[in-house]
Amino acid sequence: MTLWGRVALAMVLLAVATVGAAGLSVAYFGGGGLGLEALLSAGAIGVVLALVLASFVARQLSQLLAAEAARQDAARLALAESEQNAQAIIKTALDAFFQTDLDGVILEWGPQAEALTGWTRQEAIGANVVDLLVPERLRDAHRQRRQKMLGEELGRSAGVRFEASAMHRDGREFPVEVSATALRRGDSYVLNNFLRDISQKRLAEEQLIQAQKIEAVGQLTGGIAHEFNNMLTVITGTIDILADGVKDNPSLASIAKMIGDAADRGARLTSSLLAFARKQPLQPAEIDVNALIREIVQLLSLTFGKHVAIVTRLSSDAWPALVDRAQLNSALVDLAINARDAMEGSGTLTFATSNVVFGMREAVATGVEGAGDYVVIEVADTGPGIPPSIRDNIFDPFFSTKEVGKGTGLGLSMVFGFVKQSGGSIEIGGEAGRGAVLRIYLPKADASALALANGDERPVVGGHETILCVEDDLEVRQFVTVQLESLGYKTIVATNAAEALAIAGRGTPFDLLFTDIVMPGPMNGRQLAERMMAERPALRVLFTSGYAYGAMHAQGRAGQGIPMLTKPYRKAELARMLRRCLDPAIDHAGDPIPLPYSVQPELERFVRKNSQ
Questions:
Q1: Fewer CB within 10 A of the terminal residue: the chain, N end or C end?
Q2: 175 - beta bridge partners?
Q3: Cα within 13 Å of Cα(532), Cβ side
Q4: Residue 575: count of CB within 10 angstroms of its CB
Q5: What angle do CA 388, 389, 394 make, to 5 degrees?
């Protein structure tokens, strides 16, 4: 039986005893024959019973009151703990919390709200949130939206989430995400709000959109350049034939030369477009870095104006570098533009070159590909320098110290990627407040590379081998066929990878696969070469393309890169690349056979590297 049940039973017994005593009294005084002694005895028993029952009831009531008091104390303690937990959650939340009534008057203001907006709790409590946080030009619209929201959302537990512009105490605006829920309190409601600064999120979204725009422009540029290079291949190739035919007629020869020069300018234009889009495969060659820097300085002098002085300290004995000329040009221009921006359009920009020989320890510390000879290019400015706190992030994609809209944060990361891909490294020097120095280390070009680079004056040499030419463009295919046959080669043509595989499947003999990389259909030129080399390990391969993005990193046998002839090209370039592919001796597995003349240079290189 419950405590309340026992109290009720005792009350009933007390009432029965009282009624019994009253009945005895009535019987005695009414002459019912009841004796005085019996009456006194019954009365005494009733009194004792009443006292016992009353004492029992009192004890039970006391227990009830104590239990109720304990329950109320526990409820008050739980409420206090709940409020403490709520305050702890508010204080430790990552987002700013504030509470308002339905009129927008602030009732609670968390510490994160103080940090985010600049308004203290004392200043915020009692103020209207619209006047405190909403920019003046947006207040009317905010009030209307708030009233509409209150009419639709009151009583809904899900609440609302929206983005808006908030105003800091110092007057600056910043984007925020607001999460608001209505909580019933008595006959009304209060609104609990969490505020989150989404400035970094907006910046990341803008950078992503910008990167996507750059990617889209790059894809479009690359596609246009590919088609344009196909046309230029025919023009530049046939102009050589015309020039040979009119070489005895000076007036016609000058016209042919004029056409050839215009075609060369068109080729340089498409090369620049591809370099801008970063879709051009690297074509490392021997580069005179001093000559390239002089060309860049001449261009920058016309662009930067007289407030930026450009100084050169070029070593007269600087080694030639093995690097892609167009990409190095783009990288140095990017560094120069960054330096100009850092100097705010006024200061001194310095280009310097030197040589350095790294042992293995120095190579590892610098981050270059290996020990050996390297060319150093320095780009220095007199700007504020690069603080040590951001030097570890300076080459990260999308990292930028410029204002929003004044840079994508991709320039230095592209320079870093190009230099590393070239087998070199880049490091940051200088001191904060005294300017920045960026040093590019590039591998020195070997003498063999010089001979290849300067081979333009060598006579054109043909051959008698059989070449399988795979080209989807009709005009380019016809041009290549004519050029190959004029060089003495036997030619087999295919318009796509499927036709080429069918020719090879019939057992048709050929010595070299000359294929465009970008072709319609499920298989591109790189995949075609891999398929054929798997069945014919000794097959020689030469790639060609005017736009090889997505298929340009083709690795051949034994880790050797397959040569590529970039469109547009002339007959002499085609002839040299064919002999470069066909002349080296290889075994039945397709591996190069070392020739006697290659032993001495390798020995000298080994001795030089290990004598450091």
A1: N
A2: 165
A3: 33
A4: 23
A5: 85
pLDDT per position as a tens digit, 354-399: 999 888 777 777 777 777 889 999 999 888 877 776 666 566 554 4
Determine the Cα–Cα distance for residues 177 and 96; give it in Å rounded to an integer. 10
More confident of the two residues 185 and 12: 185
Angle of helix 250-277 relative to helix 325-342, nearest 10 degrees, comes to 60
Q: Where are the alpha helices (DSSP H) in 305-436?
A: 325-342, 360-366, 411-421
Query: What radius of gyration, in Å, describes the C-alpha atoms of the chain?
Result: 45
Tokens standing for 522?
């499920």
Number of H helices, E strands in the chain: 18, 17
Distance CA 5, CA 350 (A): 100
Average pLDDT over residues 278-306: 79
- 25: which 2 tokens? 């009294």
- How far apart (Å, rounded) are the C-alpha atoms in residues 36 and 116? 92
50 Cβ partners below 8 Å, 6+ apart?
Answer: 14, 17, 18, 21
| Amino acid at position 408, single letter | T
Alpha-carbon distances of 203 from 96, 197, 447, rounded to whole Å: 20, 12, 49
